[in-house]
Every structure is written in structure tokens, then in C-alpha cells.
Specification:
alpha/beta, 434 Repressor (Amino-terminal Domain), Rossmann fold, 12 helices, 43% helix, 18% strand, transcription regulation, Peripla_BP_I
Length: 334
């Protein structure tokens, strides 16, 4: 019944005009008799009437909906990022339309088209595409846009960005490893999107290794299972001479590494050093604690949402880049 119920049906049931029903739906009932309002609201409930989104848009010119695109909703980083965004937007009267792109440029393109069609009031995207051309239609449609977490080339000054100082943090980590007498850095990465927070992390560690005389190696899982990673890890480790520090470039990789260490009877820091990205509160209870490079995902979401609201409210036509520091949580796994 909901699909076929119209404002005219509600008006007939309540014995009022369609204009009166429309005024109540839009909250314009200050001068309306309480009995009339009560009668219309009863008819709305009895008929299970729900106004369509397109009808509301035509009346209001605003959807009060913001589109959020994340690369991988199964990654706790993306989930907490979305929570940080929603905490701010909800207080400002906006709902979010959360879409998972599965780190695919093609999925991202389709999702953006759907958001344009929905006429959302703004978009926050954790991008998969390295080039801004993927997002330029948002400018054409006059939809405020904020890029979050990952880097995009040739981004206009009117588009806000919030990201972490990944490269600098990893360069500093390389210096710490040198000071702790490590000779090798072995990173483990997940499959890359076209743009990824792992890219500047690798760049920072490569430069640090070169500057401090350490060897640098990376294993990219490319979607392979844990058995494949175990074999690749053991082969690489056997080729290295001296003390090795293993760096999980994404939080979820840490689970695989801990399982592999257990299978191979490796202890840290006695046999091998271990570092992980992201905020894993439980990691402090593993052995004597895991050395972390910690990002505040919810704060990143908060800042991105505030940047978007500034643009939606036309408070500024020029946005800015916010670079959040990456906190080093020194623990005994190094």
C-alpha cells in the first residue's frame, strides 16, 4: 500500500486539502488548528504514507544527505572513519549514505554517479583513483567534496583534504629501527588501490633505509591467503642477514603476521621486531605490547565532516589540507 499512497489519498482521508498535508509534512503548522494537524497525522499513520525523496528534494532543494565512500568497510579503519564523519554530520542535521567501493576504481565511479543522481548535499570520499578526474563531476554538479585519508593528484584548492603524515612517520620509524640496531626492514602490504595510504608509508621507509644503510623489502599479499603469505614470508626472511623488523602496513595484516609468527615459532623482539599501523587497543596485551604507528581515525572523520559543512554552508569557497600527525606508541615488540 505504501508505494501507491499519495498526498491526495491522505488529504481525502483527513478531509483537508493536499496543500494542508504538504504543509504538515514540511513542518509548517504554526498557524494550523491542533485538531486539523492531529487528523492529518492520523491519516498519514493509518495509510502508512511515506513521502518520496524526490518529492522532498523538489520542495526543499536540499536532501540533508551526505554520501560517504569508503574503500573497505570490513577494515576497522574505514568503519571508525565513517563513525567520526557521522558523529559530526548527525548533530548538524544530516544523514549519511555509506557506500563501500571495495577498493575498486570502477565501483567508485558507479557509486559517485548514484550519489549525483540522489542529489546529495556533499560527498566525502576515501579515494581509490589517484587522479582527480574521477571526482571532477562533483564540481560540475556543484556538490561540495572532501578527500579523506588517501592522496589524490592535481586536487583543486576548492576541495578539502584530511590525511595523515604517513611518509614522515615512516621515515622517523626507519631512524628508530636504525638506532635499535636493525639491519633489515620487511614490510607486508595488502593489495593496493590506485591510491593507498600504504604508498607514502613505503616511500618513507625506503628513503629512511637508504639514508641509514638498512635493506628494505616488501611483500604484497595481492589477495593471497595466509598459506601463501607464510611461504613468501619465510622465503624472504631466510634470505636476509642480520636483525629484521617486520612492519604491517595495514592493521588487518597484523592478524596474519601474528598467526605466522606462532606457526614458525618466532618471538618478538627476541627473534624479530614487529610494528603495526593503526590503533589496536588489544595490541598492548599481546606479549609485552606491539609497537604502533597510531592514527586517530575518528578525528580524521570529524575534521573531514567539518570541512564539508563549511563548504555546504558556503562559509568558504577555498578549502585546505589538514595533515594529522601519526602517533608513535613505543612498546616492547622492537
Amino acid at each position: 500500500m505504501t508505494q501507491h499512497t499519495t498526498i491526495a489519498d491522505v488529504a481525502k482521508a483527513a478531509g483537508v486539502s493536499a496543500t494542508t498535508v504538504s504543509r504538515i509534512l514540511n513542518g509548517h503548522y504554526d498557524k494550523m488548528r491542533p485538531a486539523t494537524r492531529k487528523r492529518v497525522e492520523k491519516a498519514i499513520n493509518d495509510l502508512h504514507f511515506v513521502p518520496t525523496a524526490s518529492a522532498r528534494l523538489l520542495r526543499q532543494n536540499h536532501s540533508h544527505v551526505v554520501g560517504i565512500l569508503v574503500g573497505d568497510i570490513s577494515n576497522p579503519f574505514s568503519s571508525l572513519l565513517a563513525k567520526g564523519i557521522d558523529d559530526v554530520l548527525q548533530q548538524a542535521g544530516y544523514d549519511i549514505l555509506l557506500m563501500n567501493t571495495n577498493n575498486s576504481r570502477e565501483n567508485e565511479s558507479r557509486a559517485l554517479q548514484r550519489l549525483y543522481q540522489q542529489r546529495v548535499d556533499g560527498i566525502i570520499v576515501q579515494p581509490n583513483s589517484r587522479y582527480f578526474n574521477q571526482f571532477s563531476s562533483a564540481i560540475h554538479h556543484d556538490i561540495p567534496l572532501v578527500i579523506v585519508d588517501r592522496e589524490v593528484d592535481d586536487q583543486p584548492s576548492t576541495v578539502g583534504k584530511v590525511t595523515s603524515a604517513n611518509r614522515d612517520a615512516c621515515y622517523n620509524l626507519g631512524k628508530i629501527l636504525y638506532q635499535k640496531n636493525y639491519q633489515n626492514i620487511l614490510t607486508v602490504s595488502a593489495r593496493f588501490a590506485e591510491t593507498s595510504g600504504q604508498i607514502p608509508r613505503i616511500a618513507g621507509l625506503k628513503v629512511a633505509a637508504a639514508d641509514n644503510g638498512l635493506s628494505y623489502h616488501n611483500i604484497e599479499t595481492r589477495g593471497h591467503d595466509r598459506n601463501w603469505l607464510t611461504k613468501a614470508f619465510l622465503q624472504q626472511l631466510n634470505e636476509l642477514k642480520g636483525k629484521t623488523a617486520v612492519v604491517s602496513l595495514m592493521g588487518p595484516i597484523l592478524f596474519d603476521l601474528l598467526a605466522i609468527f606462532k606457526e614458525l615459532n618466532l618471538s618478538f623482539p627476541e627473534d624479530i621486531g614487529l610494528v603495526s599501523f593503526d590503533d589496536w587497543e588489544w595490541s598492548q596485551y599481546v606479549a609485552n605490547g606491539i609497537f604502533l604507528l597510531k592514527q586517530d581515525m575518528e578525528l580524521m572523520g570529524n575534521l573531514a565532516a567539518n570541512k564539508l559543512l563549511t563548504q555546504i554552508n558556503r562559509a568558504s569557497t577555498v578549502s585546505s589540507t589538514t595533515l594529522l600527525p601519526v602517533e608513535i606508541v613505543a612498546r616492547q615488540s622492537l
